[in-house]
Design goal:
Length: about 270
């Protein structure tokens, strides 16, 4: 079998990176299972991100700090099995890259080998450079992630917009420059003022992907559960809901339960004779 990529229009790390400044914004969406990945592919997203938001929107944890490598891999494999065209990026969960470069490379490689990931995402700036460099040295592309990084929730004291003060904003720009110089192919900017995201986007030569970071990034990412309204309760200000699947789901289950209780389900047509 030829090692060449047989899917002609498959998004690769270089093709994703080369979209910087080309006018067409990059569309990144989280996916944690095969059915979501199939829908996102059919809708034409550029990149599927198996985010560690998995922990909060699928597994019911209160923070992403509780997500393990095994849980991430379980879901990344499901997405990897059906992915055809979109770039597949897997999020390195908390503690999978904090215990040393060797451990981080081993964990990153599991996403590539076991799930078919094209790249991994790592939260943090200059503090994470040694680990980012080690993973890049192992030939695994890295997407950076700066701003309101959810794995830093304890240090931040909550989910608060970052980079509002001048010193913080300057530090974030330095982090972005350092990551880009180290060789990351893209940087997610989360929960920062639009002006700061615009500044970073102008400063670095790799695509910035915004979430709660305004319109001036090179692309946008959303958590699929937010976009589709799959969970009850309020959502952050930056979320635009394109459906209310939670309500539809409750309504459909309620109707089925009523039919069962009224003995109108199953009908003769739904029954084997
Ligand atoms: O875990 C995640 O879903 C993310 C995105 C919100 C960028 O990191």
């Amino acid at each position: 079998m030829s090692p060449t990529n047989k899917t002609p229009s498959r998004m690769t790390v270089p093709s994703f990176r080369s979209r910087k400044g080309q006018g067409t914004l990059l569309v990144v969406l989280t996916a944690y299972d095969a059915s979501t990945a199939l829908a996102a592919e059919e809708a034409g997203v550029d990149c599927l991100l198996v985010g560690d938001s998995l922990g909060m929107v699928v597994l019911g944890y209160d923070t992403t700090l509780k997500v393990t490598m095994d849980e991430m891999l379980h879901h990344a494999r499901a997405v990897g099995r059906v992915r055809r065209r979109a770039l597949l990026v897997a999020d390195m969960p908390w503690l999978s890259f904090h215990l040393g470069a060797e451990d981080a490379v081993r964990n990153a490689a599991r996403f590539v080998r076991e799930a078919g990931a094209d790249a991994v995402k790592i939260e943090g700036g200059r503090r994470r450079l040694p680990v980012v460099r080690a993973i890049l040295d192992a030939e695994i592309p890295v997407m950076g992630h700066l701003g309101l990084t959810p794995q830093s929730v304890l240090r931040f004291g909550g989910y608060k917009v970052q980079g509002r003060e001048t010193a913080e904003a300057d530090a974030l720009v330095e982090d972005a420059r350092a990551l880009a110089d180290a060789g990351v192919f893209s940087i997610v900017l989360e929960g920062i003022p639009a002006g700061l995201a615009e500044r970073v986007t102008a400063e670095v030569g790799v695509p910035t992907i915004g979430i709660g970071a305004g319109r001036q990034c090179d692309g946008q990412v959303l958590v699929i559960h937010d976009l589709l309204g799959m969970l009850p309760g309020p959502v952050p200000k930056f979320v635009r809901r394109y459906a209310n699947l939670h309500e539809s789901e409750v309504e459909a289950i309620r109707r089925w339960a009523d039919d069962v209780r009224k003995r109108t389900y199953p009908s003769d047509a739904e029954t084997y004779s």
